[in-house]
Amino acid sequence: MSIARFSPFELLLLKSRSQVDTATLLLLAWVLVHRQHVSEGQRRRRLAQVTAQFRHGHELGPVMSIAHSQDLQAIQLAAEVVRKECGTERCLSVIHQAITVATDDGELSLANHYILRFLADLLSVAPMTLNTLFKELTGIPLTTPEDPSRDVYWQTHDPDYHARKAREAEAAERQHQQANARAEQQQRKKQQRHQQKQQKQQEKQQRQEQARQAREHEQQRQREQTRQQEQQRQQQQRERAEREQQRRSRQQDSYHQDSYHQDSSHQERRNRQQRASPPPPDRTTRALSVLGLTPGATRIEVRHAYRRMAQLHHPDRFYSESEHQVALASARFQRIKNAYDYLMQTY
Amino acid sequence: MRDLYQRLAVSPEANDQEISQAVTSCQHSALRQDAEAVFAVAERRETYDTLHDTLSDIGRLRARLGLSHGAHWQGDVANDFSLPPDHAISRHDELVDRVSHAVSLYNRWRRLRGPWLLIAVFAAGAGIGIALGLALCLGLLPM
């Protein structure tokens, strides 16, 4: 037995003259809280307007404050009460009220897209019925919600930012080009200076060579005498160098082979490490949650859960109902089967 | 709507540096581009976080109410925000339990004639107090 006190919503529910009305009130307030561009006073007036014929007999203020605090337990309790007490007609009227509260001109906030669909599932209203009801009330068909987790959404909803980005990129490119042009100019100047230097050097060399030629004429005679002796010595040196080169080339060959072996073994090891690295953990968790299991479930538990889920969601069970139900069931079944196949591969 | 935090394997409370690290190390190029678009600007991340919180709440509610395979719960949202059931007891049953407990306590209190008991305890306390006062006045206690 819990020692926890009664929460504000529980007290409200106990004091209420009609529990269903109080619970519906909270769900509608929850929808209203997620509506954008509306002031608090407008929210209260709208709620009072929609729930004029409710018989709860208490103030709307506390309900709004509970909805503002996003008390998940209170909302869960309200959902349970509504599901328990509502018949088919009442369900439709609750959805009707929720749509009226969520939108005046057909513009739904993203959160309300999902909240309305949650309420429809809770009150077992089929997607077709929800669509027709929405179109009747607002004149606009119920679209699939946009996806702010994608780049496209932000390109359409935040074009200023992208324009600014493009302008910045252009400016950066222009700067880059200017810098390039400046660098080229500097290089050209440097080349000119270099050419001047080279010319001077050439002149100097010419002068030096003339002097050298004069000197060489005198030396040639002496050199012819010594050349014969030098030739003999050079021949000996060349032979020795050739022998040494042969030895060195042999050594290098053997070294190359060794290093190649080492490299290939290293690469193999790296490949194996990459293959053995564990798959991203979130996919396993997701697959487990599709089967209604927590992380750390054993293979046997997975198999049992899969059999149970497969029996529950097999399309053949919905054969007697509408074609749409069968299609939905087969989509669900496919999801469950994919999760199971993935888990059987990884476990 | 996908759960980018789950897909990048970071916690939703992670700071900007951790997130940018996770984004740059992401192997999936399309996912990386989307995550950059969302997490590059603080306002966008705020918007995304608000919706992310709402969807996590709805996912938890659906898990607790047994609606995680509903007809309106399909695609990316269902894949990323479905939670395993956490075996939380039904709130309505809990409320009924608590009310019945309170009622039984109240009945026991009435049966034991709680008010009379309270008066008796109060009278006994007063008597002891008077006796002590008298004793003090007559100087019987060593002070």
Task: Describe this protein's structure.
The complex is a heterodimer of chains A (347) and B (143). Chain A is mainly alpha-helical. Among the domains of chain A are: 3-145, no CATH class; 283-346, DnaJ domain (Helix Hairpins, Orthogonal Bundle), CATH 1.10.287.110. Chain A has 13 helices and no strands. Chain A has helices at 8-15, 19-33, 40-50, 61-68, 72-85, 88-102, 110-122, 127-138, 151-157, 159-276, 281-290, 299-313, 323-346. Chain A is elongated, with a radius of gyration of 43 Å. The two termini of chain A are 39 Å apart. Residues 255-276 of chain A have low confidence and may be disordered. Chain B is mainly α and 143 residues long. In chain B, helix 2 runs antiparallel to helix 3 (29-39). The N and C termini of chain B lie far apart (81 Å). At the A-B interface, helix 1, helix 5, helix 7, helix 9 and helix 11 of A face helix 1, helix 3, helix 4, helix 5 and helix 6 of B.
